[in-house]
């Protein structure tokens, strides 16, 4: 969510963040026009910082060399930041990219995604009413209505943390279609350890620490109950 992005930028030391809306007219602007009319006239830059693979302008024809040429013309420096590399699963020279992070989250390898992000991946939303099956099984769960546009990790059960009133709580997180009860809609349910207060309609932030197991269909609610107990013990 935008508020979270702005918070991350502020925590990293940014004094001002300018949010650009994704409008067709903006993306149809030629690279040279973008630099002169938007960057130079509006912001009067001293320096610009970009990654080596940066592309911009109509048909993505602008690149860091385009920026360097403009810098010589308009008097600003261009700093190109090399890719950040990480040891990922025995591959010590893996280049971090947003597409790699999306792949890792989508495949459930949230621990590796956290290595790339420098922080655990998190979902944000509000707690909504669910089927209340967790309570009947003896494990109250918070059903998260995820903010639009967020990438939900692969189906499975995860260890993680829930942020409530700025406090972190250990959590067992289930993402899936409740196969034991023949569910069809993907839901994000969280059992927050040692927490009993009502969370309905309250904001919730869920961090994903580790994949525990895939979703599976159990023979009975009692079998599911025993597995949930084991999941919670693993989270602890």
Describe this structure in words.
By secondary structure, the chain is α+β, with helices and mostly antiparallel strands. It is 31% helix and 29% strand. It has eight helices and ten strands. The strands form three sheets. The chain has a six-stranded antiparallel β-barrel with strand order 5-6-9-8-7-10. The chain starts with a helix and ends with a helix.
Defining key terms:
236 residues; alpha+beta; six-stranded antiparallel beta barrel; two-stranded parallel ribbon
Give a quick rundown of the structure.
It contains eight helices and ten strands.
The neighbouring-strand order within the major sheet is 5-6-9-8-7-10
Give me the secondary-structure category.
alpha+beta
Number of strands: 10
pLDDT averaged over residues? 91
Report the order of strands and helices. HHHEHEEEHHEHEEEEEH
Sequence-ordered SSE layout with sheet pairings:
Layout: H1 2-11, H2 24-27, H3 31-43, E1 47-51, H4 64-74, E2 77-81, E3 85-88, E4 91-95, H5 98-106, H6 110-117, E5 121-128, H7 133-136, E6 142-146, E7 156-164, E8 167-176, E9 187-192, E10 203-213, H8 221-235
Helix pairs in contact: 3-4, 5-6
């Amino acid at each position: 969510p935008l508020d979270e992005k702005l918070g991350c930028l502020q925590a990293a030391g940014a004094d001002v963040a300018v949010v650009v809306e994704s409008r067709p007219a903006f993306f149809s602007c030629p690279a040279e026009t973008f630099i002169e009319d938007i960057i130079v006239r509006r912001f009067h830059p001293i320096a610009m910082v970009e990654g080596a693979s940066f592309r911009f302008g109509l048909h993505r024809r602008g690149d860091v060399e385009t920026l360097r040429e403009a810098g010589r013309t308009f008097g600003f420096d261009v700093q190109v930041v090399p890719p950040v590399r990480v040891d990922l699963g025995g591959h010590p020279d893996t280049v971090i990219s947003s597409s790699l992070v999306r792949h890792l989250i989508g495949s459930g390898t949230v621990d590796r995604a956290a290595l790339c992000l420098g922080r655990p991946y998190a979902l944000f939303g509000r707690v909504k009413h669910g089927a209340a099956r967790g309570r009947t099984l003896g494990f109250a769960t918070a059903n998260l209505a995820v903010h639009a546009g967020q990438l939900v990790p692969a189906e499975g059960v995860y260890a993680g943390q829930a942020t409530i009133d700025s406090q972190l709580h250990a959590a067992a997180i289930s993402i899936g279609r409740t196969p034991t009860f023949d569910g069809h809609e993907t839901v994000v349910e969280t059992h927050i350890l040692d927490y009993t207060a009502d969370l309905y309609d309250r904001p919730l932030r869920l961090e994903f620490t580790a994949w525990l197991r895939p979703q599976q269909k159990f023979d009975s609610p009692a079998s599911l109950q025993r597995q949930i107990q084991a999941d919670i013990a693993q989270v602890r």
